[in-house]
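Budget justification, computational time. The allocation requested in the original proposal was used primarily to generate structure tokens for proteins on the priority list. As evidence of use, we reproduce two of the resulting records. The first is shown immediately below.
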Amino acid sequence: MALIERPATRDGGLVPAVVTPSSSYGVFRRPVETKGWKSWLFTIDHKKLGIMYGVTAIFFFFLGGFEALLIRAQLATNEGTILSADKYNQMFTMHATTMVFLFVMPMAAAFANYFVPLQIGARDVAFPRINAFGFWCFLFGAIFINTSWFLGGAADGGWFMYAPNSSVPFSPTSGIDFWTLGLQITGIASLTGAINLIVTVINMRAPGMSLMKMPIFTWMILIVQFLLLFAIPVITVALFLLMFQRNFDATFFSVEAGADPLLWQHLFWIFGHPEVYILILPSFGIVSEVLPVFSKKPLFGYPLVVFSGAAIGFVGWGVWAHHMFASGLGPISVAVFSVATMAIAIPTGVKIVNWIMTMWGGKLVFTTAMLFAIGLIVQFTIGGLSGVTHAVAPSDTQQTDTYYIVAHFHYVLFGGAVLGIFSGLYYWWPKMFGKLLNETLGKWNFWLMIIGMNLTFGPMHIIGLQGQPRRMYQTTDARAGEGFFNLNFWNLVASIGSLILGIGAFLFVINVFYSHRKNGPAPLDPWDARSLEWMTASPPKEHNFDAIPTVHHLDEFFHRKYEDRGEGEHHEYHQVATAEDVLAEQEANADKHIHLPSPSYWPIVLAFGLPVMAYGVIYNIWLIVVGGAIVMAAMYGWGLEPATATPDDYDPPTPEGGAELEVAHG
């Protein structure tokens, strides 16, 4: 059996293999030189890239957390002196930028990269090399943004970077230039990843897996990719305009030139509010996977959860101007966006009801993953309720730019997105690394984070309603108030809470090191899980599945382990197989020929050229030339990578020769 053409496009994509009778070659494997550190540096394996996304994102989580602790230390006392006004502006700008763009978004990408191919029964994503290129764009963009700390100061205009405050007269250093250029580079990662995952989900699902048999996590990720596909170009346009205004004397937001600074706000929030759902929907998907497993029940109302997720994604495009109620839009615009903001609460509420009904009557198992999932429901609901008050324009006008807003979006994003991420980490850790995390440390991790979160952000409702503005680097006696509403007291409580929250989060790192030193290999199916990613080894084999599974049910893995012996509407499940039995059957019926595209170093070279060009925009035009040359050379080298496999790329043939390869998965 000889494979005459490599069954992959030059970017690692998917095409049918050309097969001719022979016994020359055997199973295709990745070349032997990709061992050790090279196996990570040049990898195009979706699982390794998922881990790399995750490790990098968690690093930035703790960096962003350190920035938050400095902010709270500054505000812990009246007229704090830890940070100057300028450094405080830089700190809260970079804290928000880091948490949104360098932690939550790439952490969702980590789970998506690792688990979407596994959940749909594929061997990799559709375009593995483009996938690697996306990761390196994210990493180099993130590093580029943070080098601003050492090159004159970081961005200081807030993560929203409102014009005209972001123009050169108000921010003459290069910090905002690093911000605009770095986010354009990380945006390439988001855009290429979105296209890649959309193609993967649409084209590479296992036989029999219709859209309505996909796991909810995959559904939520698919919706998020469509949001990214349309939202990233909007923010890219805004960033280009701001870059040209700051570096090439353009006047896109200059009032004196007849322009309107509100143009920036519209562009930013047309991206920014879908961005909220880009951040939260992956965690909704994680919770929708975790709750059924630890409730020992199927997800209640699966179609409703799917369609409510799609509705959130659709309606999310029509609410951006509720961030602008105080900007003078006029009563008709305000009324329309108020109604749209109230409407989006409906599909969100549907999800919460579905999660509660999933647990109702179930045999609940309170693992750490389950606790974080329940924590998301409770904390996100609190954030959602305060969010409803922002849909009412008169109250929103009073709350705008106060700490009440800070309290709201932290309950939504930390109580929602971040708690969901931790639920996913504890749930999927044994699948990714073959080790269970310690449950005792995990529960300390959970409770300290929950207590710390509520102590930090709960008092901000009081502080905000008392009138403390956002983005002020000091509180003063004149704003302090008296008695229960003493602002200094509640600021101190919030700062103590942030320290508890930080300790709780750091317990996760301790748990990882402790568990990997002390714990033995995890069971193959430690949670009695339901979806396809658990139907392979832990960690998964390089090719994911020995044989691509054929799907007959939603929760296919569960139905392979359990048989329904009930009648009619009465279900009575009896176990007929273990996870080990299912895996053994896979191995016994393994595909004879499995194609995996070879690693490549061109994605990292191509991505490296982008920050070089970005430094050139700020410092010297010749660096643009150097970076452009690197980019062009990398594109040329990538395009010339051989499209055919050599005999050395194949293992020796099996004695029986094997079966024909019908489809190759890049």
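The second record produced under the same allocation is shown here.
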Amino acid sequence: MASDNGQLALPPGSSVTTTSVLGAWARPDKPTGLMNWVTTVDHKKIGIMYGAASLFFLLVGGVAALMIRIQLATPDSTFLSGDAYNRVYTMHGTVMVFLVVMPIGAAFANYLMPLQIGARDVAFPRINAFSFWVFLAGGLMLNTSWFLGGGPDGGWFNYAPNNGIIYSPGHGIDFWNMGLLIAGIGSMTGAVNLITTVINMRAPGMTLMKMPVFTWMTLVTQFLLLFAIPVLTVAQVLLAADRNFGANFFNVQQGADPLLWQHLFWIFGHPEVYLMILPAFGIVSEIIPTFSRKPIFGYPFMVFSGIAIGFMGWGVWAHHMFVSGLGPLSVSAFTVGTMFIAVPTGVKILNWLFTMWGAKIILSTPMLFSIALVTQFTIGGLSGVSHAIAPHDTQQTDTYYIVAHFHYVLFGGAFFGFVGGIYFWAPKAFGFLMNERFGKVQFWMMVIGFNVTFAPMHILGLQGMPRRMQTYSAVQGFGMWNMVASIGAFILGIGTMLTVVNLYTSHRAWVRQGRPNVGADPWDARTIEWSIPSPTPEHNFDTDPVVTHLDDWWHRKYQKDENGKLRLVHTGEELAQAGNGEGVHLPAPSYWPITLAFSLPIIGYGVMYTFWLLIPGILLMMAALFGWAFEPADNLDLDDHDHGHDDQAGGAEKELETV
């Protein structure tokens, strides 16, 4: 029988493990074309869809950024009205934070983490599909605000009382609230899924301290999501009650305290900064050792510093509120906490530097982007530590100095790491190498464009330019540096979009030249996802890998000779699995996850516009839940399948026959 999430339900006392259950499913007639992607529960395809959706929203948020820079390039500009500027500014920040950087991290986590721990898939494949579709549904709903009365205008942090019905009477804030509320459901369900996967589905021999650094950073990120998103959800439910049902949680006229919103938002918001940057830290922690030809320096320190960042991130939220009147005692406490959290971050930077120290570094495109993350994030981190000093922060808050700091951390840090990760793992995902010469041109365009854009904003902030200023006069002296920043923004925008151009042109060149898929291990890498063919087979591994070392794949290729020196014993291609997948049974596709996900925006529109829309939304949701709950496990007549080629699947078959 099937459980409520489509997993096979077995009687109590059965010895079938989660991994075995996944191996017991048989995939029926598989849809093709678009329906293959719509109904897929394959973690790899879901990871690719997360990435594609993030790149689409990057285009949306990037266009908004360029509109801002056109408006600010010259004094007294009338390109955008004040109202339009507020909406564009709000949507740029919201889209980039919630719909670009966070889901790109989810793309890497979904695709790579099961491969790095030797699993067939995630613990709950259909819930994984639901997580993606509900994120996409929320993101699309948010962006329909442009066509249904205008986008939100309260800033990406949407402070009270500006988010109330009195100061923002249209539906823009409602779209912000409902869209992110729905997308947050995907983050929470995805977090539970990935945490369960890491804890229960690691390959034999893979202890926690043998997991790759990326998997560790993914695990920490999922715990941050699991506990941070509900805090924001509480704030959003209260705001929805205020705006749609006449409640007074943030209504100052009725005696409410608007600081409640700030506390709730930043209790979520500061851990969110780390859940955006930690996946990128994990990515460069895999790339730097590969191209330095050395193991990561101080692996335990890398792991525990990531855990420390996740833990300490909960104790520094109020440094965003130093000018809100918290009082000297609170300000002092959060000042100390903010200074301390720089320590584990500094540990990571030192570990990366010591990994590269004395190495024969290969300056490939992934390595260049990883080095850029280390340098640009360090700049952003130093300006961030300076904000722990309350008088310093008081002068610079709500100026362009903060804008510069934030972008050095999240774009110069997280996004550079993600682009490096795309270049690094593209062979594993797509079967071809991206063009290196093209990649290096893109790298220099992005680095130069990034610094030309955001370095001048430090100066503008110190000159006193507010970060939400719609225009300025020539006598204020902001013109020159704003023009420089605007020129840099267009260079950066072109460089960023070259990621997609390189993917497309590299694929076309690879196909036109008739090249076979790139080998399993083109980088001579260290972790076990490189032990399987490229692109990754649908079933991942022919047999369960057995792990004996940290960086186990590297240890299979290199061993010490009689003189104690490491020598290449086998190439990756010699050791790689064949990837035929005979006898491996996988979870079946399902259209219930997407059906359930897109019922939620209908309910959201009903709350905003007319309760009559609640009826079809709730009916669709109930139908999807009913269909999901009673969707049978597929093809349990295991005698019809080949039993001789997969130990895991064969063992599951025997156990199920006994059941």
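A brief technical remark on that second record: The CA atoms of residues 596 and 622 lie 8 Å apart.
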